[in-house]
Amino acid sequence: CGASEIIDAMLKVHQYVIINAPSISQYAAIEALENADDYIKEKASIYDERRKYIIKRLKEMKLKCYAPKGAFYVFPSIKDTGLNSKEFCDRLLKEEKVAAVPGYEFGECGEGYIRCSYTLPMDKIEVAMNRIEKFVAGLRV
After folding, report:
1. E runs forming strands in 1-141
2. 103-110 LR contacts (CB < 8 Å, sep 24+)
């Protein structure tokens, strides 16, 4: 809603801002395509280390978890805790200050699971895993 002369001017600006990628983004893409192989290998290695660590810790907590083959998330089962995924995530956040996404957000088959990301640095992941372990142990008492 607005005056037609303002809307017309806004549409012109909008059109030229969104139609093409800005030249700086195009140059960044060229740089990445030509020179990012080593960076990608390094990052993939770091994420793989984090993935292995989280899976190991979850299995030690007796939370079933399969190793993902892509992305940077794990989807462990919390079915044995007696909580549904929303309750688990809400309490985990409130009691231990760790955020996870309830599995029901990913559809009916996701209930009973939570999604955990491993994009943070390892020291923060270690803290989160220690807190999750404490939380899960408290549920099983």
Report:
1. 73-74, 101-102, 114-117
2. 103/75, 103/78, 110/75, 110/85
Q: Model pTM? A: 0.77
Distance (Å, whole) CA 98 – CA 37? 33
Write out pLDDT tens, residues 31-65.
999 999 999 999 999 999 999 999 999 999 999 99
CB under 8 Å to 114, separation ≥6 — which residues? 75, 76, 78, 85, 88, 89, 92, 100, 101, 102, 103
| Helical H segments across 61-121, by residue range | 85-96
Sign of CA dihedral 38, 71, 65, 61: positive
CA gap 39, 137 in Å, rounded: 39
Structure tokens that stand for 65 in this block:
């978890």
pLDDT greater than 80 at residue 16: no
